[in-house]
Specification:
heterodimer, A: alpha+beta, 3 helices, B: alpha+beta, six-stranded antiparallel beta sheet
């Protein structure tokens, strides 16, 4: 049975299929700015700061709604932004953003052939067009906040 | 198209998967087919500055694929004479031609005696076989 699986996979490849796994999927979801749980959102983040207020009905009652209402009323301290590298470098999860903030997802975009990522920055730095400096293993590298999604296919 | 596996006989190798083509007091350095294949298609080469010095067994740059970053280890010490701008602009050149157009830097050797510590193609292939 297991042998059949290998033979089947090889046969599909021979007919021109390309192997495509999690790495490929991760570049695609980041190009369109889908947040990944564990990277961009999680127990320490909230939906408003992450830009996911549109999926929350704050007029309903549910666990945590008070916090979300407060963040929405007061405005989030940090926002999850998308950015594109201006310098040649590939941002990676965990890299510090100058001025406070951190890269939560980063990769090389195969479609745009440039480093892209998402991360939390102080709300004042969240506007598209804002220049960011990312610490790429000790080297300061410039990036620019862009409107989400980073990439949208033209039909 | 990625190159087929090969380890040319005329090169010297470092066990961290780097090669050196020595010509007099100068050498051209790069990464082996094995290293390029393990990383996958390269999308970035963080190159050293021309005029800086590289030290044998220490990192002089980084190569990155979409999934991974790897230090590039200098097989020999010397001053950087040139950086392969073709690879900076099109890093996948390393996958296509690791020992030719995919060279990384050219150095003037500071200690040609270090050559004795490098491996020939047969010894490097043994390193790969033992992994």
């Amino acid at each position: 049975m297991a042998d059949d699986a290998v033979r089947l996979f090889d046969a599909v490849l021979e007919r021109g299929a390309l192997p495509c796994g999690l790495g490929a999927r991760d570049t695609l979801r980041l190009e369109v700015c889908y947040p990944l749980h564990g990277n961009d959102i999680g127990p320490d983040t909230d939906a408003i700061s992450a830009g996911l207020g549109w999926v929350c009905s704050l007029d309903k009652e549910f666990e945590g709604v008070d916090v979300l209402r407060r963040v929405k009323d007061e405005g989030p301290d940090e926002r999850l932004v998308a950015f594109v590298m201006e310098d040649k470098a590939i941002p990676r999860q965990g890299m510090a953003i100058e001025g406070g903030g951190e890269v939560t997802s980063g990769t090389h975009s195969p479609t745009l052939d440039v480093g892209i990522g998402m991360g939390y920055v102080p709300a004042a730095q969240a506007k598209p067009g804002t220049e960011l400096t990312i610490d790429v293993r000790g080297r300061p590298r410039r990036a620019r906040v862009v409107k989400k999604p980073i990439y949208k296919r033209e039909d | 198209v990625a190159a087929a596996e090969s380890y040319p006989e005329d090169l010297k190798y470092h066990s961290e998967h780097d090669w050196a083509r020595v010509e007099g007091e100068e050498a051209t350095l790069g990464i082996t087919w094995f290293a390029a294949d393990a990383l996958g298609e390269l999308v970035h080469f963080e190159a050293p500055e021309v005029g800086s010095n590289v030290t044998k067994d220490q990192s002089y740059g980084e190569v990155e694929s979409v999934k991974a970053v790897s230090d590039v280890i200098a097989p020999l010490s010397g001053e950087v004479l040139a950086v392969n701008e073709q690879v900076v602009g099109a890093p996948e050149t390393v996958n296509d031609d690791p020992y030719g157009n995919g060279w990384l830097i050219r150095v003037r050797l500071s200690d040609p005696g270090e050559l004795d510590a490098l491996l020939d193609a047969g010894a490097y292939k043994q390193v790969l076989a033992d992994q």
